[in-house]
Amino acid sequence: MSIEVIMELRRKGGCFLTGEDVEVEVTFKNTHQELPKSIAWSCVQLFCEASSLNDKESVKRQRLKTSFTKAKNAIFASDPTLLFCDIIINPGEVKKFEAKHLIPLLDVPPSFKGHYKKYFWYISCAAQQPESPLKMSQLPIKVLNIGVDVEEPPIEVEETPKELLDCPDFKLELPRLSIVEIAMAKIQEICSSRKRRLYEIGNSGTIFAKITMLKNTFKLGDDVIGRLDFPRDGINCLQTLIIAETVETNLLDDSKPENFCSHCKEHSITAFMEQTYFKLALPMTAVPCFTTEFVKVRWRIHFQFVITRDKLMNPFKNGQSLLADNLNIETVKWNLPINVLTCSPFNASLVCSNSDSTTFVI
């Protein structure tokens, strides 16, 4: 075993959108100082594997077109790319091969580590020397779902002058936009739309807080900004807790409770405030909204208000007042659904912890 195999992603960070190509470079190096080594074959393939808490849960499997996968619940497998058959590598020689696999645009989930369901994407590379056991390694990647309909816009081309068409060296090449450029342009257009929205929060018919927001569609990495107004008309709001969280719903079993995951929060003391603002940063390490046949993941802003109908100040001597003790308080909860789309995979790669390469020996 003196052949070192290095599988490396062309894109640093290993984050991709659905509909993109995953390009890898596989390097074979003979580390033996004297003897040449032969390799019978090598193959590269893209997988998406699903796992859940319930081992008896049925998973629709795609018929795999190769026999070297270790995935027990592979819900997607690309066509295998055969890199070579029967090659000889001399001592110290290095040979490089490339492979490219397309992530489907539709009908596949993003990378997700939830409570009821987990989806893992990875590139698998297998190689074998003659009369030796099969060796393989897996390189995890992160896949983000686009979440919007993407369609390449029509390209308007001006009429080409006749003198250019008659020129034999003239070639008309139309620019093609990548799936990332098309998707991010559409997402940016959706997230840029602003419309003032006012939500009134009340208790027993009395409004104690008003929430103002300019939009309810965001992308990962955006700031959720809003304003809180407190009328202080019979009810005082003592403090607020605002949380951006994802809600995972098990679509196969309605009896299972929803699972909540908090991503960022902001706590404020508002006892004597008439107006304040909040800002929540949606992390690029999270997942956009998506739905599969097993789970549904959505985003919401969770509000908690601690209120009281008692007076906050009691009169004291000489016209002074003291803060009241033993207030009767009540906690009011309210949820605001929001739509969260993906960010650019290049931005997500900056905070992704996945490795760009993996090495094994055959």
TrEMBL record:
Domain of life: Eukaryota
One protein family per Pfam: Rgp1
Protein's name in the database: Uncharacterized protein
